[in-house]
Amino acid sequence: MNLYDIIILTHGDAGKELLNSSEMIVGKTKNTTAISLIIGMSPETLMEQTRKILRPNIKTVILTDIYGGTPSNVATVLSREYPIHCISGVNLAMLLEANMLQDSDKEITIEEYVQCIHDAGKDMVQSYQFNKG
């Protein structure tokens, strides 16, 4: 069983709602927390809230919404202090993959874990249209 911590950092409550949706599909998640950057919150406050839940010797994946946005920048700064891997562009498919891999009997490295999450998110982005006739 792979137990890496997962932190979702997003603008507004997008991360919390993704977590709720994920739990609707796969059940209660393990080691997963969502933190929201709300209007008027400083990057320093977001960093402190995130730092409070980081565990120094536990490998952590931080999923953020927009690369280069405040949550992403906070994750980048914290990755200099903690064993953190960051992935931007979080979507429901990524979170589902992350949580299903937590329950897998197959041992995988943190690097493999991050790649699987990244690939799951990327693979679910599709453009499609139904044409009649």
Helix vs. strand class: alpha/beta
On the 0-100 scale, what is the average pLDDT? Answer: 94
Enumerate the spans where pLDDT stays under 50 for 5 or more consecutive residues.
Answer: none
Distance between the termini: 49 Å
Tell me about this structure:
- The chain has 133 residues and is an alpha/beta fold.
- The protein has a domain at 80-126.
- The chain has helices at 14-26, 43-53, 70-78, 92-102, 110-123, and strands at residues 5-11, 32-37, 60-64, 84-88.
- The longest helix is centred in the C-terminal third of the chain and has 14 residues, at 110-123.
- The model has no long low-confidence stretch (mean pLDDT 94).
What are the SSEs and their pairings?
Blueprint: E1 5-11, H1 14-26, E2 32-37, H2 43-53, E3 60-64, H3 70-78, E4 84-88, H4 92-102, H5 110-123
Parallel strand pairs: 1-2, 1-3, 3-4
Helix pairs in contact: 1-4, 2-3, 4-5
What's this entry about, in short?
By secondary structure, this protein is an alpha/beta fold. It contains five helices and four strands; from the N terminus they run E-H-E-H-E-H-E-H-H.
Name the features.
133 residues, four-stranded parallel β-sheet, 5 helices, alpha/beta
